[in-house]
Amino acid sequence: MALWRAYQRALAAHPWKVQVLTAGSLMGLGDIISQQLVEKRGLREHQTGRTLTMVSLGCGFVDYPDALITNYYLWPAVQLANFYLVPLHYRLAVVQCVAVIWNSYLSWKAHQL
């Protein structure tokens, strides 16, 4: 919980920087999940350049935390539930969790042979 509070403080103090780093981290995490859990590459076959490319894309195309999902025009039900059912201070966490799943799918789809 202390890590979450530190993240919230950093987000309040430096919203743009934190959002850029968050988006890049989530894209990278999504690629790692795709390579390791979906594609089952293992550490020796992990394509680090691919992960860094995904991190760069995440950092370069960030808008706002909610845009991680809404820019893709997918999962409107998640956003609907997020805005109507989830307390304000947990909304970013919900979007980020869904973004990791979406980024894993994007990475897998983009790198299918």
UniProtKB/TrEMBL annotation:
Q: Which residues form the signal peptide?
A: none
Query: What protein name applies here?
Result: Mitochondrial inner membrane protein Mpv17
- Compartment(s) of residence: Membrane
Q: Which residues cross the membrane?
A: none
**GO molecular-function terms, A-Z:** channel activity
Annotated membrane topology is: Multi-pass membrane protein
Query: Which Gene Ontology BP terms does the record give?
Result: regulation of mitochondrial DNA metabolic process
Report which superkingdom the organism of origin falls in.
Eukaryota
What is stated as this protein's family in its record? Belongs to the peroxisomal membrane protein PXMP2/4 family.
Quote the PANTHER family the UniProt record gives: PEROXISOMAL MEMBRANE PROTEIN 2, PXMP2 MPV17, PROTEIN MPV17
One GO cellular-component annotation of the UniProt record comes to:
membrane
Q: Which InterPro entries match?
A: Mpv17_PMP22
Keyword terms: Membrane, Transmembrane, Transmembrane helix
Q: Does the keyword Transmembrane helix apply?
A: yes
Chief localization: membrane
